[in-house]
């Protein structure tokens, strides 16, 4: 549970088995959201065609790329620290080139080259296809910056190289960018306008993952519920263009259905849902398909109507409760998690109490909680004073973290005595005699290995728990393993 605060900020080294035959070595690491990790897989794919294999040893890299996050100031500081480390290595290996990718690249642009002497190239999230040219520029001694944002780049045609994968779960991007303009958020500035990827390329990627043995996919977008693809079709079959668009367009619920039916034995997850864009047909689709996981990450940010409005979150507290009630009605066991920010400008004790009260109503399974961090260029930075003192932000944060811990325990305890379906992902960190995996609700469960293996769907009888983990024993394979066909999918 201690991980709650920084889970989204932690960096990881991404590694794949070196491919034979390529001569240059790429060290790539990612910070921030799942989309960054997914993008790094696209980058690795683009560069493998340019003769780069990935390495996990910084010292032997010809090219070091860091995929960065700007969401909070702390995330940027973490990256600056990493650059110091690269600098130390570059003293030993002066030929090494260093590139910055992602949101910090987009936010700081060529200023990066001035501020950090170690940096050779700066590449924004929509410009990765230009990497081969940019690397060429660097090798020929020119500065290399491309931070152009695109209205249509989705990388839909690139098959990602799966980095440091357990071979069980994978991310599949479905939208890029965000048009929501929450006033605290830097993402619309660093990732540009929202655009949806062709559903056919999404389903092809899902099919390809299934063929490679993957058992779970997470459809990724900053705001998945606004996914919308205007389909094509033959004009002659329709009265006019708008009728054709209506008949052939694919929204998020339809995309979920397409994926669930394409691979009935695969678990389907998605992230992230903004409550203002989530619709009943998504919840209904989740309820109808067994292989769409009963779990929704539904960030609320605040429980106060006044603060929600100032944040430009376009729903009220009442509407949020209605959505929660609807979810519970159709999917009684649905796991729900949140993001909450404490200390947004002008937040009073009363607003904070509203947030605590909202949490009491929902009793989230888990959540990600943050103290407000003012981001340059955002509406909040331009319009509001960052006027809640740091120690008050921290105190309120501690209060919501403590309440969440209580609710997490309440939720895990409800599993005791029940049998739940777990997809085995890896060995438990605490014991090499136990497997670790997740339930449909995304709660971690550990149990003795017996003869099961990574990638198996197993029914686990839960006998004990902590606030973050279920502890139990396997009682056999679950329905997803032996059965074939669409009948197994529809509830
Ligand atoms: N829609 C996105 C949200 C990205 S940001 C997604 O796919 O997850 C993730 C979370 O970071 C937000 O929900 C918010 O709770 C938090 N966050 C964003 N900007 C922040 C800021 N300026 N200060 C503190 N937390 C912030
Ligand atoms: Fe950020 Fe709001 Fe979009 S949190 S990513 S602007 S939905």
From TrEMBL:
Its EC number is 2.8.4.3. The keyword tRNA processing applies. InterPro entries: Elp3/MiaA/NifB-like_rSAM, Methylthiotransferase, Methylthiotransferase_CS, Methylthiotransferase_N, Methylthiotransferase_N_sf, MiaB_methiolase, NA-bd_OB-fold, rSAM. Its cofactor is [4Fe-4S] cluster. [4Fe-4S] cluster 1 binds at residues 33, 69, 103. It catalyses: N(6)-dimethylallyladenosine(37) in tRNA + (sulfur carrier)-SH + AH2 + 2 S-adenosyl-L-methionine = 2-methylsulfanyl-N(6)-dimethylallyladenosine(37) in tRNA + (sulfur carrier)-H + 5'-deoxyadenosine + L-methionine + A + S-adenosyl-L-homocysteine + 2 H(+). It is found in: Cytoplasm. [4Fe-4S] cluster 2 binds at residues 178, 182, 185. Residues 24-140 form the MTTase N-terminal domain. Its main location: cytoplasm. Keywords: 4Fe-4S, Cytoplasm, Iron, Iron-sulfur, Metal-binding, S-adenosyl-L-methionine, Transferase, tRNA processing. Monomer. This is tRNA-2-methylthio-N(6)-dimethylallyladenosine synthase.
């Amino acid at each position: 549970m201690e991980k709650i605060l920084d889970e989204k900020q932690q960096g990881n080294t991404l590694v794949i088995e070196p491919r034979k035959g390529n001569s240059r070595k790429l060290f790539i690491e990612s910070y921030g959201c799942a989309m960054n990790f997914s993008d790094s897989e696209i980058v690795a794919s683009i560069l493998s065609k340019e003769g780069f294999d990935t390495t996990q040893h910084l010292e032997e890299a010809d090219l070091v790329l860091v995929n960065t996050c700007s969401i909070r100031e702390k995330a940027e500081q973490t990256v600056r620290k990493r650059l110091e480390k690269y600098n130390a290595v570059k003293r030993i290996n002066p030929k090494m080139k260093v590139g910055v990718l992602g949101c910090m690249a987009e936010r700081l642009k060529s200023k990066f080259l001035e501020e950090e002497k170690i940096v050779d190239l700066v590449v924004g999230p929509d410009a990765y296809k230009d990497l081969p040219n940019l690397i060429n520029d660097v090798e020929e001694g020119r500065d290399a910056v491309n931070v152009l944002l695109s209205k249509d780049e989705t990388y839909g045609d690139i098959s990602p190289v799966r980095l440091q994968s357990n071979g069980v779960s994978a991310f599949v991007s479905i939208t890029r960018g965000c048009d929501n303009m929450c006033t605290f958020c830097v993402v619309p500035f660093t990732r540009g306008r929202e655009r949806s990827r062709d559903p056919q390329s999404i389903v092809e990627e899902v099919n390809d993952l299934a063929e490679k043995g993957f058992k779970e996919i997470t459809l990724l977008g900053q705001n998945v519920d606004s996914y919308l693809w205007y389909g094509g079709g033959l004009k002659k079959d329709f009265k006019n263009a708008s009728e054709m668009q209506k008949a052939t367009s694919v929204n998020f619920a339809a995309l979920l259905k397409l994926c669930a039916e394409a691979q009935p034995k695969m678990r389907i997850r998605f992230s992230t849902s903004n409550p203002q864009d989530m619709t009943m047909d998504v919840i209904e689709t989740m309820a109808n398909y067994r292989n769409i996981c009963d779990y929704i990450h539904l960030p609320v940010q605040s429980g106060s109507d006044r603060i929600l409005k100032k944040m430009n979150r376009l729903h009220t507290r009442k509407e949020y409760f209605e959505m929660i009630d609807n979810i519970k009605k159709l999917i009684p066991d649905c796991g729900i998690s949140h993001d909450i920010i404490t200390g947004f400008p002008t937040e009073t004790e009363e607003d904070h109490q509203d947030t605590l009260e909202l949490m009491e109503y929902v009793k989230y399974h888990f959540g990600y909680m943050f103290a407000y961090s003012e981001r340059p260029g955002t509406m909040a930075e331009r319009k509001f004073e960052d006027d809640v003192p740091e120690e008050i932000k921290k105190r309120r944060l501690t209060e919501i973290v403590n309440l969440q811990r209580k609710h997490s325990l309440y939720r895990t305890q409800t599993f005791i005595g029940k049998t739940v379906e777990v997809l085995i992902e890896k060995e438990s960190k605490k014991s090499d005699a136990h497997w670790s995996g997740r339930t449909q609700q995304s709660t971690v469960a550990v149990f003795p290995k017996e003869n099961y293996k990574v990638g198996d769907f197993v029914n686990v009888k839960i006998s004990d728990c902590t606030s973050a983990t279920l502890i139990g024993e396997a009682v056999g394979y679950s329905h997803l393993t032996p059965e074939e066909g669409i009948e197994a999918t529809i509830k």
